[in-house]
Amino acid sequence: DTGVSQDPRHKITKRGQNVTFRCDPISEHNRLYWYRQTLGQGPEFLTYFQNEAQLEKSRLLSDRFSAERPKGSFSTLEIQRTEQGDSAMYLCASSKDGGSTDTQYFGPGTRLTVL
Amino acid sequence: AQTVTQSQPEMSVQEAETVTLSCTYDTSENNYYLFWYKQPPSRQMILVIRQEAYKQQNATENRFSVNFQKAAKSFSLKISDSQLGDTAMYFCAFMKQGGDDMRFGAGTRLTVKP
User: Which one of A44, A45, A97 has the shortest CB-CB distance to B99?
Assistant: First the structure.
């Protein structure tokens, strides 16, 4: 059994460029979450999917951010026209609907640096 | 809105001793879950322990135990027999029943000293 995986682990980009991150959840998990974590802070919720449906989005998710989960398996998070303030760790988590306490299991994260 | 507060930004403990990390939260929900996650330096976040709000009995996992006080909205983590590998950021988190977004505290950086 593999855990949640994320790719890439690190991304350095120039301001104004677009970036896309991928998350592969634990195989039987139907819920998938995206969080953002800045240095020294706890993760902040961005959005979540149940299967392929995006059910909730935080106000942190500006119109430059878009997330998809087209087949209810892996998910992508795209940031368009990146800004220096987007520099953070982007975490993905998954859980099983109806599972024990809906516990979320986290991936290793993608660290984004915008120059 | 739910908020989670961890009032201890940093703590340290000697190896083999016991340490308690504090967490308080604010919610109007009656059914919810509380979690402690551990994030070692440059490594991914892993679940330490979880507590269902409807359970009066405090959760325990080996050397880790919680003191859940629902009326006081307090959820502290006790680590017994601290080990060097316990050095990490510890995050307290709240999630209402139904499994949508989880709210995290700002974290407590724990250092276990040899």
Answer: A97
Whether residues A108 and B52 touch (CB distance < 8 A) is answered with: no
Convert the pLDDT of each residue in A74-96 to its tens digit: 999 999 999 999 999 999 999 88
pLDDT for A100: 55
Dist CA A65 CA A67 (whole Å): 7
Phi-psi region at A86: left, alpha or beta (left = phi > 0; alpha = psi -120 to 50): alpha
Q: CB B101 to CB A101 under 8 A?
A: no
Alpha carbon B26 to chain centroid distance? Answer: 15
pLDDT band at A65 (very low <50, low <70, confident <90, very high): very high
Instruction: Using the predicted structure, report yes or no on whether residue B21 has a pLDDT greater than 60.
Output: yes
pLDDT band of B99, cuts 50, 70, 90 = low
From A94, which residue of chain B is nearest by alpha-carbon distance?
Answer: B99
Nearest CA in chain B to A57: B101
Residue-wise over B23-41: b if at least 16 C-beta within 10 A, else e?
Answer: bbbeeeeeebbbbbbbbee
d(CA B42, CA B95) in angstroms, rounded, equals: 25
Find the closest chain A residue to B54 by CA distance.
A101
Q: Is the peptide bond before B40 cis (omega within 30 degrees of 0)?
A: no
- CA-CA distance, B68 to B76, in Å (whole number)? 7
